[in-house]
Amino acid sequence: MLKPSEASxxxxxxxxxxxxxxxxxxxxxxxxxxxxxxxxxxxxxxxEVTLRTPAALDVIAAMAGVAGGIVGAGTxxxxxxxxxxxxxxxxxxxxxxxxxxxxxxxxxxELPLLPGxxxxxxxxxxxxxxxxxGKFFPAETAGGAxxxxxxxxxxxxxxxxxxxxxxxxxxGDYLSLPNVACVGGSWVAPGDxxxxxxxxxxxxxxxxxxxxxx
Length: 214
What we know:
Helices cover 43% and strands 15% of the residues. By secondary structure, it is an alpha/beta fold. Strands 3-2-1-9 form a four-stranded parallel beta sheet.
């Protein structure tokens, strides 16, 4: 059984490895390894593969073998997802929100969870359960950096990875906050570059993101 406090320690360590966690929606397992290699080479070792495509679990399995990479599953919604992601080699899970059942499943199967929250009440519920690292989602729609700064005033014990509408242009607004360890974003692996196999271009985007100050 993985305690929420231990899960938060592990996810916080991962969040601190780089300023950006790429959020990846991958349709074709054939691109999994070169995509992961490009991102890791560019300085972004922690990768979130969302469970939004039929290929997602195979992509996680393939990326799990890339040297230097730490691959997790995103859009984890149920115990079924937790079991499948763990079997595929995911080392952490990310969810858009947090339910008692999902938290319990991750704790039981010892898969560190980065649980989503968008309001002070949701953050307080995470604190009650023992989580101190979370995902602020959907970041821009929920009020952006100003909202997260406001939440951090009364609830400074929780550190976040804001995701949802985060880009190279506004990532710095979040990374400047004391309650932000990193941000999550898809801009480092745009669909057109993935489709074209432009791994050098993706590596360049990753290097740019890895150089963001925080």
